[in-house]
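DM from R.C. (forwarded with permission)

"hey, sorry to bug you on a friday — could you get me a structure for this? deadline for the figure draft is monday and I only need the backbone to look sensible"
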Amino acid sequence: MNNILFFLTPKAMCAFLYDDYTVRQALEKMETSGYATLPILNKRGEYRGTLTEGDLLWALKNMCYMDMRQAEARRIMEITRRKDNVPVRVTTNMQDLIRRASSQNFVPVVDDKDTFIGIVTRSAIIKYCCEQLFPED
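My reply, with the result:
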């Protein structure tokens, strides 16, 4: 298996944030999606980074002072993020994808124009590896 598209969750099936969202919009999107970490895109669809629940918690403490009115006025790109999940290109080989997934719970995938096309989850890779290593009899 050399094609990472086999593991791809396409953009249409991903929860994500736009870089002009407010802190409150990001909180609501995380709540409804059920995910603790979401990719951030700009309106052109380019990957801009990753926002975590922890990033939001610290932003509420440091920027909004636990006031939801202030959370409506602050943009998520103002938030200091602990780390961004580093994207890979759609042409990335499996070895590099697995290396990246070993330190990220998902790997954003971009095309040759840096347009976000989806994610590869660590769980999808582990599931595939288990199926290969331990085929059912």
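R.C.: lifesaver. DSSP finds five helices and seven strands in the chain.
me: no worries. The chain has one domain: 4-133.
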